[in-house]
Design goal:
By secondary structure, the chain is an alpha/beta fold. 43% of the residues lie in helices and 15% in strands. Strands 1-2-4-3-5-6-7-8 form an 8-stranded mixed sheet, with helices on both faces.
Length: 321
């Protein structure tokens, strides 16, 4: 009898909680459905370029350009956070993610060529204007697009994307040696950057809590890096990165002349692109919102909600259409 009474009391309490939750939801009104992300492929000069897309095409576009050693998967959480008000697109470069991976004999892996592919990609899918989100490799790709087509760029969102000599510090010493001399010794010194330990380190170093970083992220990245022939691709791009610092004055001149509204959301604990590379943007940009975040290279992993909020408020203030 006592057990039956206790059971009825618990059931009554649960029914009350459920009814209260239903009443609260009714007061809030119907919840908006989660934005649908589509996964697409488009042919660019015989290459299958994969891209993620969400949001109404009539809304302002944000073009998300990923870094090394990852792909558009780095934006997997950010895309639905922005897609209710923006048209969001994130492609994978050749040799990365789900895009085609021709060998180094079949395709010249350079930042000029990556930018050329992404330029043709934007034209192929009809992007006349967009805000550029650049991170790591996305910066030299995106800034090439911006210099060539300044009329297309409505705003910049910069997450650990370098455009100043001050940003190339200790981490870059072996890479600078490689740019000067592609000897076997200098080449072998860079192969350590292609190991699972290095990939995990890029995702976890400088974070507040490594337990919040999903291991599936670096596991997928490493699986793609380990494909036959991909290491040669990455070594070629390591060498091609040496073509970027000579372009820094050109990119800085673009900032000064065209003054794109710019949001900096930079993981300040990043050893690859430290905060010293973020500060010089203040010299050249007048309409600049600047945030150093207490996290690492892939700031979206720990501070994705915060960054999404900054983006929404920043772009709303710019009244971009």
């Amino acid at each position: 009898m006592m057990k039956s009474s206790y059971t009825r009391s618990v059931l009554a309490a649960l029914l009350f909680i459920a009814a209260s939750a239903g009443l609260m939801n009714a007061q809030r009104g119907p919840q908006a459905p989660a934005p649908v992300v589509s996964y697409n492929v488009v042919d660019i000069d015989g290459l299958d370029i994969f891209y993620r897309e969400a949001g109404d095409r009539s809304n302002p576009t944000i073009l998300l350009l990923h870094g090394f050693p990852t792909s558009s998967q780095m934006f997997r959480n950010l895309i639905p956070q922005l897609a209710d008000k923006y048209h969001v697109i994130a492609p994978d470069y050749p040799g990365f993610g789900q895009s085609s991976m021709p060998s180094v004999e079949e395709f010249e892996y350079s930042f000029d060529n990556l930018a050329d592919v992404i330029e043709k990609f934007t034209e192929r899918i009809g992007l006349a204007k967009y805000s550029l989100y650049v991170q790591d490799y996305g910066a030299p790709v995106g800034y090439r697009l911006a210099v060539k087509h300044p009329e297309r760029v409505q705003a910049l969102i910069v997450q650990n994307g370098n455009a100043y000599d001050e940003g190339l510090r200790e981490f870059w010493i072996p890479l600078k040696a490689y740019w000067k001399d592609r000897s076997e010794a200098n080449t072998d010194a860079l192969r350590q950057f292609l190991t699972v330990e290095a990939t995990k380190w890029q995702w976890t170093h400088g974070t507040r809590d490594q337990k919040r970083i999903d291991p599936n992220i670096w596991t997928l990245d490493q699986a793609l890096l380990d494909r036959p022939g991909n290491q040669e691709i990455q070594l070629q791009l390591f060498f091609s990165y040496g073509s970027n610092p000579p372009l820094y004055p050109q990119w800085q001149a673009y900032f000064r002349e065209f003054q794109p509204p710019t949001l900096i959301v930079w993981g300040k604990n990043d050893h690859i692109f430290p905060a010293e590379g973020a500060e010089p943007y203040k010299r050249d940009l007048k309409n600049l919102e600047f945030h150093l975040l207490n996290t690492g290279h892939f700031a979206l992993e720990e501070d994705g909600d915060l960054i999404a909020g900054y983006i929404r408020k920043f772009l709303a203030r710019q009244k971009i259409k």
